[in-house]
Design brief:
The structure is a single chain. The protein has 118 residues and is α+β, with helices and mostly antiparallel strands. It contains four helices and four strands, in the order E-H-E-H-E-E-H-H. A hairpin with a 2-residue loop joins strand 3 and strand 4. Helix 1 packs across helix 3.
Protein backbone atom coordinates (compact mmCIF):
# COMPACT_ATOMS: atom_id res chain seq x y z
CA UNK A 1 0.00 0.00 0.00
CA UNK A 2 1.30 3.45 -0.88
CA UNK A 3 1.82 6.18 1.69
CA UNK A 4 -1.18 7.27 3.73
CA UNK A 5 -1.26 10.61 5.52
CA UNK A 6 -3.77 11.29 8.26
CA UNK A 7 -4.42 14.80 9.57
CA UNK A 8 -5.44 14.77 13.21
CA UNK A 9 -5.81 16.87 16.32
CA UNK A 10 -4.18 15.77 19.56
CA UNK A 11 -7.44 16.11 21.53
CA UNK A 12 -9.61 14.26 18.97
CA UNK A 13 -10.92 10.95 20.33
CA UNK A 14 -12.22 9.85 16.95
CA UNK A 15 -8.78 10.49 15.43
CA UNK A 16 -7.31 8.09 17.98
CA UNK A 17 -9.98 5.48 17.19
CA UNK A 18 -9.23 5.71 13.46
CA UNK A 19 -5.45 5.52 14.04
CA UNK A 20 -5.93 2.49 16.31
CA UNK A 21 -8.03 0.74 13.64
CA UNK A 22 -5.43 1.43 10.95
CA UNK A 23 -2.68 0.12 13.22
CA UNK A 24 -4.73 -2.97 14.13
CA UNK A 25 -5.05 -3.72 10.40
CA UNK A 26 -1.31 -3.22 9.79
CA UNK A 27 -1.90 -0.13 7.68
CA UNK A 28 1.05 2.23 8.00
CA UNK A 29 0.41 5.96 7.97
CA UNK A 30 2.06 9.27 8.64
CA UNK A 31 0.24 11.37 11.20
CA UNK A 32 0.24 15.13 10.79
CA UNK A 33 -1.17 17.23 13.58
CA UNK A 34 -3.14 20.12 12.15
CA UNK A 35 -1.50 22.68 14.43
CA UNK A 36 1.99 21.56 13.34
CA UNK A 37 1.13 21.40 9.62
CA UNK A 38 -1.08 24.50 9.70
CA UNK A 39 -0.54 25.83 6.16
CA UNK A 40 -0.90 22.41 4.55
CA UNK A 41 -3.97 21.66 6.71
CA UNK A 42 -5.59 25.01 5.84
CA UNK A 43 -5.01 24.38 2.12
CA UNK A 44 -6.56 20.93 2.46
CA UNK A 45 -9.55 22.28 4.40
CA UNK A 46 -10.11 24.91 1.71
CA UNK A 47 -9.79 22.31 -1.05
CA UNK A 48 -12.31 19.90 0.49
CA UNK A 49 -14.52 22.53 2.10
CA UNK A 50 -14.55 20.35 5.21
CA UNK A 51 -12.08 21.19 7.99
CA UNK A 52 -12.79 17.86 9.70
CA UNK A 53 -10.37 15.52 11.43
CA UNK A 54 -9.31 12.90 10.87
CA UNK A 55 -8.83 13.56 7.17
CA UNK A 56 -7.02 10.77 5.34
CA UNK A 57 -5.02 11.38 2.15
CA UNK A 58 -4.25 8.44 -0.10
CA UNK A 59 -3.31 8.42 -3.79
CA UNK A 60 -4.39 12.07 -4.27
CA UNK A 61 -7.81 11.27 -2.80
CA UNK A 62 -9.20 12.58 0.47
CA UNK A 63 -11.37 10.60 2.86
CA UNK A 64 -13.36 12.49 5.47
CA UNK A 65 -15.59 11.07 8.23
CA UNK A 66 -19.32 10.97 7.44
CA UNK A 67 -18.74 12.26 3.91
CA UNK A 68 -16.66 9.28 2.79
CA UNK A 69 -16.73 6.72 5.58
CA UNK A 70 -19.11 5.98 8.41
CA UNK A 71 -16.72 4.27 10.80
CA UNK A 72 -13.05 3.31 11.06
CA UNK A 73 -13.66 -0.22 9.76
CA UNK A 74 -15.28 1.16 6.63
CA UNK A 75 -12.24 3.42 6.08
CA UNK A 76 -9.96 0.38 6.36
CA UNK A 77 -12.00 -1.45 3.71
CA UNK A 78 -11.93 1.59 1.42
CA UNK A 79 -8.16 1.86 1.72
CA UNK A 80 -7.58 -1.87 1.23
CA UNK A 81 -9.65 -1.96 -1.96
CA UNK A 82 -8.97 1.52 -3.34
CA UNK A 83 -8.20 1.78 -7.02
CA UNK A 84 -7.30 5.08 -8.57
CA UNK A 85 -9.96 6.14 -11.09
CA UNK A 86 -9.12 5.73 -14.76
CA UNK A 87 -11.59 8.39 -15.89
CA UNK A 88 -10.50 11.93 -16.63
CA UNK A 89 -10.86 14.47 -13.83
CA UNK A 90 -13.46 16.42 -15.80
CA UNK A 91 -15.60 13.30 -16.26
CA UNK A 92 -15.30 12.50 -12.55
CA UNK A 93 -16.28 16.05 -11.59
CA UNK A 94 -19.27 16.00 -13.93
CA UNK A 95 -20.54 12.71 -12.47
CA UNK A 96 -20.04 13.95 -8.91
CA UNK A 97 -21.98 17.12 -9.72
CA UNK A 98 -24.81 15.04 -11.17
CA UNK A 99 -24.85 12.86 -8.04
CA UNK A 100 -24.81 15.92 -5.80
CA UNK A 101 -27.67 17.48 -7.79
CA UNK A 102 -29.68 14.26 -7.44
CA UNK A 103 -29.01 14.06 -3.69
CA UNK A 104 -30.06 17.68 -3.14
CA UNK A 105 -33.20 17.13 -5.22
CA UNK A 106 -34.12 14.04 -3.16
CA UNK A 107 -33.49 15.83 0.14
CA UNK A 108 -35.68 18.77 -0.94
CA UNK A 109 -38.39 16.37 -2.12
CA UNK A 110 -38.37 14.60 1.26
CA UNK A 111 -38.45 17.92 3.08
CA UNK A 112 -41.38 19.12 0.96
CA UNK A 113 -43.32 15.93 1.70
CA UNK A 114 -42.78 16.40 5.43
CA UNK A 115 -43.80 20.07 5.29
CA UNK A 116 -46.92 19.17 3.27
CA UNK A 117 -48.04 16.83 6.08
CA UNK A 118 -47.95 19.74 8.52
Amino acid sequence: MKEITIYTQSNCGYCKTVKDELTKNNIEFEERLTNEWEKEWNDLAILTGMPTTPTVCYEDSYFIPVRDFGNPQQLVEILKHFKKPTFSESKQVLEKIKTLNYSINMALRNLTQKIDKL
